[in-house]
Each structure stands twice: as C-alpha cells, then as structure tokens.
C-alpha cells in the first residue's frame, strides 16, 4: 500500500520548505515520489511542464519529483507502476482547492493500492486574515479540509497575531492539529508523527469530501478538475471581488502603508463555492534574456509587492541574468515581502507571476518585452 500525503497551502506559504524537512529528516530511507501540480505557464522550480505526460527529475534525498498534467489517475498509475514508491507526496497548486485534490485521490484509490495518509495545509501567519477575507473560497477550503495545519513564519510574527490566526482557523476547522512552533525548532520525525496521527479526523474529513463529491455529481454543476488546479487556463477575472483593490496591507506586515485597503466585503468567493482557480486567478510567465541589476530588480519587486500597478500580485518568482558574466539573481515575492538572492545560471531567464487581474502588457514592458 502506497501512502499519499497532500501538502497544500496558499501561494508562498512555505510548502516546499516543509516538504524538504520531511524528506531530509523523516522519510529519508523511503522510496518517495513528489508530485507537483503548479498553476501557471512556467514552472520555475522544475522547468516547463509538458503539454501531456509526466516530467521526471531526481530530487535531494533520493526523491523522484514529477509534474502530472492531464489525466491524474492515468499519470498516477504510471508513477506507481514505474517506481512502486512507499510514499507519494502531492504538492498542489497554491490556488488549488484541497478538497479537489482529495477527491482525485479518493477516485483513484478505488482502483489502485493507495491510501490517503494525510492532508496538511501550510498557512503564512502574516497573511492568514487577509487571504481568508480576500480569497476565502480557496484559502478556507485548504483550511477546512486539512487534518493538520502548520503556521509558517511564526518566528517573525507577533504572538498576538498568531493567536488571532489560531482563532480564525479554529472557526473553520475545530478538529485539526495546529502547529504554531516554528518548524525549524521541531524534528522532521515529530512533524511526521503529527500529520500521520489520525484520531479519526482524516476519516471524518474524507467522509465529508466523499459526500460533497457525490452531491456535486448528482447536481451536475461541477467543473472539470482533472489536473486539480486548472493548469494552463488563464482567464482574467477582473471582478473577482467586485473591485480591483482588495489588499489588506495593514494586516499583511503589521504596519501601515499609504496605499492600504482593508475591505471586509471582499471575501465574495465565500458565497459562491463553485469557482475554479482559473476563473479567479491569472498566471503570466515569460522567458527573457534582458539583464537586470540588483537595484533595478529591487525597484520592480517593491512596486509589485506594495502597489497594484501590475494587478494584484500574489506570488512571483524568477531567475534573471545580470550584466556580470555568470551572475544571476533569483527572487521570490508574496504581498509586502520579497527576497533576492544570487543563484547559478540557468539556460534562460524566467519569470512567473500569479495573481488576480494581472496587467500583462505592463508586466511584458517591465521585463523587457514591451
């Protein structure tokens, strides 16, 4: 029997960090397959996703990593046949619904020797309240269906804010174990024990997902979730909250900005539980050979993270060359936060942006294609 663990979390929450800790400290001796399911045209972490089939690459700790595109069941069957893993970790898109991924696993478990072992959601403690209000349909779904919820960045967030986050999460999910200790302070084996501890919680949630699944089939108003996150469908949904400006910047980082908006009425998705990610979120990506300087990249990221000049940017990452031979800059961004670091040259420069109402023409100009 192959165990399947789903590690979900909204954009930039820290899923990869959590998975890496499990791989290195808790399940090193196991044959593990990591399945990534990214939303967007360009997968920065793993090269480009193929139009069909599976892209396989070796990971640290002997883990095999692959991206499944198209028929989830068929692709999963191929992975099981080829690798016969002890465990499969699924890292869904940050804008995917956890219940959809759980349904996909439940569907295939009827015909394959697999079991859903755990469903984990990573929540950025600095952005819980904002995302809950602005993207409730997706963010809350990840919280409501998790057996374990891990709060990330609790080491840099005020403890009072963390307690408020716990209260908000408890309203949505009274049963899940909530990890508030920074994961750096815990051993991988401890985390594995927490997420695998059933206490019938996961069974209850699975039953709810099954009932919900049957209800959707009966009423025939469900979307096609074959690839869990609507990969490569990029509808621009300008009115996802009725207006474009709905960042709660005051809540994002604990201090005011001149442009902050705290719109309590913005969780419009909560009232319509049938949106698909591609109806609300847009992804934009490009290859580029235009070099940047650290100063110019800093200026770009400041605008992207603190204004809505390019739409509502929820996640951006990329790797770009500089004028200096062999020197490249890598970056990661979520609202109000970004980091730039040096990295090794890649075969070409790449940028990927995910958000709502993205202004693609402005982004093209920003990275040298205008």
Short description:
The protein is α/β, with parallel strands linked by helices. The protein has 12 helices and 13 strands.
Question: Main β-sheet: number of strands, strand sense, barrel status?
Answer: 8 strands, mixed
Discrete helix count? 12
| Helix content class | 25-40%
CATH superfamily heading of the largest domain: P-loop containing nucleotide triphosphate hydrolases
Task: Please explain how this structure is put together.
The chain has 370 residues and is of the alpha/beta class. It folds into two domains: 2-219, Rossmann fold; 281-366, CobW-like, C-terminal domain (Hypothetical Protein Yjia, Chain: A,domain 2). 33% of the residues lie in helices and 24% in strands. It contains twelve helices and 13 strands. The strands form two sheets. The chain has an eight-stranded mixed sheet, with helices on both faces. A five-stranded antiparallel sheet has the order 9-13-10-11-12. Helix 4 crosses helix 5. 43% of the residues are buried.
List the SSEs and their pairings.
Elements: E1 2-9, H1 15-25, E2 32-36, E3 53-58, E4 64-69, H2 72-83, E5 87-91, H3 98-109, E6 114-124, H4 128-134, H5 136-144, E7 148-152, H6 159-172, E8 177-179, H7 188-196, H8 201-219, H9 249-253, H10 277-280, E9 282-288, H11 294-306, E10 312-321, E11 328-334, E12 337-343, E13 349-356, H12 360-366
Parallel strand pairs: 1-5, 1-6, 2-4, 2-5, 6-7, 7-8
Antiparallel strand pairs: 3-4, 9-13, 10-11, 10-13, 11-12
Helix pairs in contact: 1-7, 3-8, 4-5
